[in-house]
């Protein structure tokens, strides 16, 4: 058993760490508190090749693997988790679904710019009445006069309002071969009847746009259908499995940032005549944080490695997402405690990470959903 990263992994991780430290981190306060979208940072991540790592060079990808992508997501999230989750939505979910299930024409049309970071994607599954119960969605597609016509409403859609987002991968119900099925479409934002609705104001990720999406007789070409119409829901579940690994990596990045900031502060902050790091209570908090982070990192790397090997990884992806998102909240809470009153101030990054930690327990499947997945695997005889 070899836990060493190979040279290509070390190079891409070091590149992402330098970019995060030198370019993103100095703007952490701005990203946490301003609604201004950092288009320049997104473009630079694309120029560095971060968005297309696991895809074939013929489509503009880097020809790398999923371990590399997730090392990048962790490194970026160490400076700003919002940008880490942007890579999740665009690369792990949208680009992957088009790459795996799209026609050659769809791949040639969309993948080069997505892989280059010139454009980003959005993923529309959640609706007002279907969150964790994704199969209960009501948006409907009807095929008429050689086109698909969509009607319905989506909510909490990340990226859709951004200027550099030209497409959304959409789930809708349609009658296929006499049966009601969940079908997947590539919906260009320029389509008639495609309406980007109100913006949501979240407790964190201020610079990450999240919007309502409305389809009012939205007309899509016959070639907008993505993948097998009989297996649209299964397609979504398969890419969301990767999304869980990506969120786990982002959580590890955020948790590591909490440890970094708390450790530096504990060495500098003097109380009762000595740095608070010298108090055993503080060292215990920091030690527990370090152990939890290492465990979460190992979980997401194992899940990504299994994906690269083409092996089942449902259990590992759900476990990584569940554990990493919950230890993020724990590490953020301990970091705020170490900072004391300063930890409640926006001037210190741990305050923003603490707020964001709750979001990470909900996106890409709540902690409760992950436990349901794990429970079902155990009931079916899943063994480690």
Automatic annotation (TrEMBL):
Residues 7-118 form the Acyl-CoA dehydrogenase/oxidase N-terminal domain. This is Alkylation response protein AidB-like acyl-CoA dehydrogenase. Keywords: FAD, Flavoprotein, Oxidoreductase. Residues 122-218 form the Acyl-CoA oxidase/dehydrogenase middle domain. Pfam families: Acyl-CoA_dh_1, Acyl-CoA_dh_M, Acyl-CoA_dh_N. Belongs to the acyl-CoA dehydrogenase family. Its cofactor is FAD. Residues 231-376 form the Acyl-CoA dehydrogenase/oxidase C-terminal domain. One of its GO terms (molecular function) is acyl-CoA dehydrogenase activity. InterPro entries: Acyl-CoA_DH_CS, Acyl-CoA_Oxase/DH_mid-dom, Acyl-CoA_Oxase/DH_mid-dom_sf, AcylCo_DH-like_C, AcylCo_DH/oxidase_C, AcylCoA_DH/ox_N, AcylCoA_DH/ox_N_sf, AcylCoA_DH/oxidase_NM_dom_sf.
């Amino acid at each position: 058993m070899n836990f060493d990263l190979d040279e290509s992994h070390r190079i891409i991780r070091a590149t992402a760490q330098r970019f995060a430290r030198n370019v993103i981190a100095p703007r952490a306060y701005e990203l946490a508190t301003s609604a201004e979208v950092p288009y320049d940072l997104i473009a630079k991540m694309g120029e560095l090749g971060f968005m297309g790592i696991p895809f074939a060079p013929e489509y503009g990808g880097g020809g790398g693997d999923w371990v590399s992508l997730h090392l990048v997501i962790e490194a970026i999230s160490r400076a700003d988790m919002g940008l880490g989750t942007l890579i999740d939505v665009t690369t792990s979910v949208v680009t992957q679904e088009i790459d795996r299930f799209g026609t050659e024409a769809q791949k040639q049309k969309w993948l080069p710019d997505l892989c280059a970071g010139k454009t980003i994607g959005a993923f529309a599954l959640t609706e007002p009445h279907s969150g964790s119960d994704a199969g209960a969605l009501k948006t409907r597609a009807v095929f008429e006069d050689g086109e698909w016509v969509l009607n319905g409403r989506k909510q909490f859609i990340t990226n859709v309002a951004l200027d550099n987002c030209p497409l959304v991968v959409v789930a809708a119900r349609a009658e296929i071969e006499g049966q009601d099925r969940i079908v997947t479409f590539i919906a260009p934002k320029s389509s008639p009847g495609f309406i980007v609705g109100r913006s949501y104001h979240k407790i964190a990720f201020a610079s990450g746009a999240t919007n309502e999406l409305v389809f009012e007789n939205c007309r899509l070409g016959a070639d907008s259908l993505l993948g097998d119409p009989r297996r649209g829901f299964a397609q979504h579940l398969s890419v969301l499995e990767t999304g869980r690994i990506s969120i786990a990596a982002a959580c590890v990045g955020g948790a590591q940032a909490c440890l970094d900031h708390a450790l530096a502060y504990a060495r500098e902050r003097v109380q009762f005549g000595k740095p608070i790091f010298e108090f055993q209570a503080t060292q215990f908090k920091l030690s527990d944080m370090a152990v939890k982070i290492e465990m979460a990192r190992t979980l997401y790397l194992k899940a990504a490695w299994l994906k690269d090997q083409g092996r089942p990884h449902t259990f590992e992806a759900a476990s990584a997402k569940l554990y990493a998102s919950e230890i993020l909240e724990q590490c953020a809470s301990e970091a705020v405690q170490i900072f004391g009153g300063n930890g409640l101030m926006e001037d210190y990054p741990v305050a923003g990470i603490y707020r964001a930690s709750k979001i990470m327990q909900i996106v890409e499947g709540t902690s409760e959903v992950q436990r349901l997945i794990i429970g079902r695997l155990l009931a079916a005889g899943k063994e480690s």
